[in-house]
Amino acid sequence: MKLLANDVDLESVQAAARRLQDFGLAWDGRRLLGTAAAHSSDRRTTTALLHAARSLQDPAADAPATAGDGADAGNDAATASTGRRSATVLSPREREVAELLLKQHTYREIGKQLYISAKTVEHHVARIKQRVGTSEGADLLAQLRVIVDAHHGV
């Protein structure tokens, strides 16, 4: 519960993720580390948690997960410097929503294209705003351009 209150203890989160890995639940461990990174306000802690999530391996998997399978959004996420936090991590679905937002589509249009409701698009946008750390329209769009460009290697 401390984690959800933005009280992130790096060592205990990493230890819990390693225990999950030991039980064959590496994906859950990576998700825990990614969630902790999203809730951390300390830049160094966020960076350490994201690094730990990337390095946590699933011993049962012979090959790494592919980008399109959605198994691990944290490892597949684009990162970009924003000034507020060292890295902004978006899930593949959030990146899709961000790209369509940058093309000035409405929530309804985005929902229709992605086969989700406009309300679900609204929830994705709220989560994106939280991760980016802004609610200002122009600032949000500017940061999304950086994130999307970084993901596409521009």
Name given to the CATH homologous superfamily of the largest domain: Winged helix-like DNA-binding domain superfamily/Winged helix DNA-binding domain
Largest sheet: none
> What characteristic shape results from the CA principal axes?
elongated
Along the chain, the helix and strand elements come as HHHHHHHH
Structural class: mainly alpha
Radius of gyration: 16 Å
Write down how many β-strands occur, each being a DSSP E stretch of 2 or more residues: 0
Q: What is the CATH class of the largest domain? A: Mainly Alpha
Count of discrete structural domains: 2
Give the terminus-to-terminus CA distance: 39 Å
Binned, the helix content reads 55-70%
Instruction: Note the total helix count.
Output: 8
Describe the structure.
With 154 residues, this protein is mostly helical. The protein has two domains: 3-60; 92-152, Orthogonal Bundle (Arc Repressor Mutant, subunit A). Helices cover 61% and strands 0% of the residues. It is built from eight helices and no strands. It has helices spanning 10-22, 26-39, 43-55, 73-76, 92-102, 107-114, 118-132, 137-152. α1 packs antiparallel against α2 (26-39). The longest helix has 16 residues, at 137-152. It is elongated and about 45 Å long. Mean pLDDT is 74; it is low at 60-87.
What does the secondary structure layout of this molecule look like, with pairings?
Blueprint: H1 10-22, H2 26-39, H3 43-55, H4 73-76, H5 92-102, H6 107-114, H7 118-132, H8 137-152
Features:
8 helices, single chain, elongated, mainly alpha, 154 residues
